[in-house]
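User: Hi! I have a protein structure encoded as tokens and I'd like to know what sequence might fold into it. I'm fairly new to this, so please keep things simple.
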């Protein structure tokens, strides 16, 4: 009887579907580490600000639900802002990197693509390991530019408020 219970519990545990995965890290070892793992509790990613100059991705800020993360990076270059539509999620990110992040292209489940940065360095193609999972949060390192970035994937957050400006 005890063995039977143990086997049942093991079977159920094995059948549990995994859903979280991450891609990265892309970039170099400089800068100070940051992680938005706590920010995801505010809701799904609803908007992203990316700053770039002629060489680098110099800064990033992500809106979770209606709450913007801290801005990470420096002040060089121009800031671009992407607003996702309600229900729209990021399902892939491609880009370029050297010791620093050079280019990011966010791709959504609605087929929209938002490229920013320079065609220079090695390519990366970040996508979730498990079906129907999306970008939940980012982490990385920053100083005066974005030195490195990682992408963390899981099922879409059910908290579905849209980001206020
Ligand atoms: C700072 C410092 C470095 C980092 C660069 C680029 C200028 O130096 O934080 O560690 O690599 O910025 O972000």
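Assistant: Happy to help. Inverse folding works backwards from shape to sequence: for each of the 165 positions I chose a residue that suits the local structure. Here it is:
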């Amino acid at each position: 009887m005890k063995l039977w219970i143990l086997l049942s519990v093991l079977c159920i545990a094995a059948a549990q579907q995994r859903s979280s995965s991450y891609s990265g890290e892309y970039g170099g070892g400089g800068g100070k580490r940051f992680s938005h793992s706590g920010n995801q509790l505010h809701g799904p990613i609803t908007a992203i600000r990316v700053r770039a100059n002629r060489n680098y991705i110099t800064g990033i800020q992500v809106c979770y639900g209606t709450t913007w993360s801290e801005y990470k990076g420096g002040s060089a270059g121009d800031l671009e802002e992407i607003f996702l539509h309600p229900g729209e999620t990021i399902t892939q990110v491609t880009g370029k990197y050297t010791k620093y992040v050079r280019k990011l292209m966010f791709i959504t489940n609605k087929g929209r693509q938002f490229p920013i940065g320079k065609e220079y360095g090695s390519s990366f193609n970040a996508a979730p390991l498990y079906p129907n999972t999306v970008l939940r949060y980012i982490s990385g390192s920053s100083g005066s530019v974005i030195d490195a970035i990682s992408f963390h994937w899981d099922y879409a957050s059910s908290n579905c408020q849209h980001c206020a400006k």
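A useful reference point when you look it over: The chain has one domain: 19-154. Feel free to ask if any position seems puzzling.
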